[in-house]
Amino acid sequence: MLDTCKLKSACNLPFVYNKKINTAGTSNADVPLADPGMYQLDITLRRGQSLAARDRGGTSDPYVKFKIGGKEVFRSKIIHKNLNPVWEEKACILVEHLREPLYIKVFDYDFGLQDDFMGSAFLDLTQLELNRPTDVTLTLKDPHYPDHYLGIILLSVILTPKEGEHRDVFQTQSLRLSDVHRKSQLWRGIVSITLIEGRDLKAMDSNGLSDPYVKFRLGHQKYKSKIMPKTLNPQWREQFDFHLYEERGGIIDITAWDKDAGKRDDFIGRCQVDLSALSREQTHKLELQLEEGEGHLVLLVTLTASATVSISDLSVNSLEDQKEREEILRRYSPLRIFHNLKDVGFLQVKVIRAEGLMVADVTGKSDPFCVVELNNDRLLTHTVYKNLNPEWNKIFTFNIKDIHSVLEVTVYDEDRDRSADFLGKVAIPLLSIQNGEQKAYVLKNKQLTGPTKGVIYLEIDVIFNAVKASLRTLIPKEQKYIEEENRLSKQLLLRNFIRMKRCVMVLVNAAYYVNSCFDWDSPPRSLAAFVLFLFVVWNFELYMIPLVLLLLLTWNYFLIISGKDNRQRDTVVEDMLEDEEEEDDKDDKDSEKKGFINKIYAIQEVCISVQNILDEVASFGERIKNTFNWTVPFLSWLAIVALCVFTVILYFIPLRYIVLVWGINKFTKKLRSPYAIDNNELLDFLSRVPSDVQVVQYQELKPDPSHSPCKRKKNNLG
C-alpha cells in the first residue's frame, strides 16, 4: 500500500466511514475560506466501478491522478485489464488553500504515452468536515460528452488542520511525489524470452493449414512475432526481452493467431506464464498447452537482475566521482572482452533544460516533461508546469547493448484531459556523440524531417568496448516493442518506389556501360576493358573478390580525407520526407474523407505490403552504398577488418576446405544447439548501416545563434 507522506501520526489515523457524499455536501462552517493555515488531506483510493472500456478487448488498464492547483500530487498504480479495479492506496496531501478543489482524473494506460482519458471529477474541499472521516463517491464525466456515463470512483477522506511548523513539508512534497512517479518507470529485472516453435496447432484455413503468429503481453509491454505461412508446426526462433516492474514478476499473456488477408485474424489459442513460479538466473524450457484451441508452444524463459538504468539529480554524477568513473572505465576496458558480451557500454545523458518550446495550452504555456529512450529502455523526467523554458537537471544512465542504437529524446506536454501532446523530438546515434559536450539540439517534428519550435540542452557521455560492439554487430538487431502501425500513404509509397528505382537504375546503368564496351561505342574504353578482362580472368583467384571491395573502401576513404568527398547530400529524399509530412497533416484533417483504397481492407493490406517491400529493397541498396561511402566510419572500418580477414583466408586456405567447414557447421548446428536463433551475419551488419531516410532523420539541425550554449569539454572518456 503506497504511503506518500512521512507524517505517520496523521497517515495512520483510523477511518470510520459514517457519512457518504458525492462531490458536494453540507457547507463546513468551521472552515474560514481566507484562513492561511495548512491542512492535511488523507485520502484512501478505494476502487472504481463500471469504468469505461478503452482497449480493443473491451477492458482498460486504469490509473488515477490527483491534482490540486494544476499540480499533480499523487498517481496510483496501474490495474491491468479491469473495469472494476481495486487500488486501496493511501496518500497524504498538504493543502494551503481550500478554495482549490481536488481534481481526480482517470486514464487508461497505453505503452507509448498515448494514454486514453476515462473521465474526471472534482472534490470540493470546502464541503468536507474537519477531523471527520468521510466516504466519497465521485461520478466520472467527460467535459466534451457530459451525457456519457463513465463509472464511479470511491474514496475515503479526512481533512485535518495543521500548524505552521509543517509548512516546509509542503515545499518538498511535490518533489517527493514526482520522485515516486519517476521511480515507477524503473524496472527491477529483465525477462528474456525465446519463442522456439509451435507443435500441432489448429488448422484454421480451408487448405488444412494456418499462417500462425504469436502475441505476448506483460503489463503494458507487447510483442508480436513474425508470421509463418502455411504450417501447423512453425519454427520462429525469435528472442526478445521484457522489463519486470514488480518484485513478484507478473503474468505473461500469450495468444496465438492465424493471419487472414482481407478479414479478421482467427484465434488459435491462449496460454500464460506465471513468472513468480520461475527461479531467477536460470533458463527454463516451457512447453505450454494452448487453451481454447489445440497444440503447444515451446519457449525459453530466463529471469535476470536489472541492468544499470537509473535517474538522478545533477549532483549525483557517476562519471565525476573518481571511483565510479574508474570502475566504469575498467568494466569496458579492452582486457575484459569476453566478460558479459551483452554489456557493450555505458551511456549517461544529462537532460538539462529546454528553451522556447511550443505553446500547447490555452493559457499560452505548456506543462513539459521529457522522455529518454534507448531501444526499449524508456525513462522520463518530472513535469514542469506552466513553463516554456523548463529546467529538469536530471541524469539518466543506461547499459548499452548495441553501440549502433539511436538515443531518442522527446518532449511532451502533459495534457489535462487527453493524451500527452507532442512538442518536439531529437534522434542521436550513439556513435555520433561527442563526450562531455553540452549542446543545444533543435527539436524536430514527429517524422524527424524538419524543425519544430524550441531547443533542448543535453550533455551525453558514451563509454564502450569496441571489440564487444563489433561482435554484437553480427547478431540480430533488437526489435522495438512499440512502433507505429504501418499505414498506407500515397506519398510514402511513391517515395519508396523512387528510392528502389534509383537503386535498380545503378545496376541498369552499369549493365549499359558494360554493353557499350562490347559494342565498341568508345574504342579506347573498349580496348582497355578487353585487356583488363584478359588479365583478370587469367590471374583470377577467389581472394580477389574481397580484395577489390577492400580497395574500393580504401579509395573512398582517401577521397574523403583529401577533401574530394564524392558523397552527395540526398536532397531528393529530404524533400520527399517534407512532402510526406504535409501529406500526413492533410490526411489527419481529412480523416473522414477516405478514398476507395482505404475502404477495401484487402487492397489496403496488399498496398502496405508492396510499400514495405519497396522500402526494404531500397534500404538494402542504400545501406550497401552508405557502407562504402563511410557514412558510419565505425562500420566501414569493421568492414575493412572483415574483408582483410576474408582475403587472407581465401589466399592461404583452399576453397574446398572452407566449403567443408561451412557445410559441417550448417549440418551440425541443429544438433549442437537445438534452440539457436538462425541469423545471417551480413544482413545483421547491414541492418546497422542507416538508409538515406535515416541519414536525413539523424542529421543534426543548426541551432539559432542566440541559443548557442557555452560548450565545455571534459576528459574524453570513450
TrEMBL record:
PROSITE patterns linked: C2
GO cellular component: endoplasmic reticulum membrane; recycling endosome; synaptic vesicle membrane
Location relative to the cell: Cytoplasmic vesicle, Secretory vesicle, Synaptic vesicle membrane; Endoplasmic reticulum membrane; Recycling endosome
Single GO MF descriptor: metal ion binding
Sorted UniProt keywords: Calcium, Cytoplasmic vesicle, Endoplasmic reticulum, Endosome, Membrane, Metal-binding, Repeat, Synapse, Transmembrane, Transmembrane helix
Membrane topology, as annotated: Multi-pass membrane protein
Keyword match Isomerase: no
Keyword Transcription among UniProt keywords: no
Membrane-crossing segments per the record: 527-560, 634-662
Positions of the C2 domain: 20-138, 171-288, 322-443
Stored SUPFAM superfamilies: C2 domain (Calcium/lipid-binding domain, CaLB)
Family in the record: Belongs to the MCTP family.
Name of protein: Multiple C2 and transmembrane domain-containing protein 1
Underlying gene: MCTP1
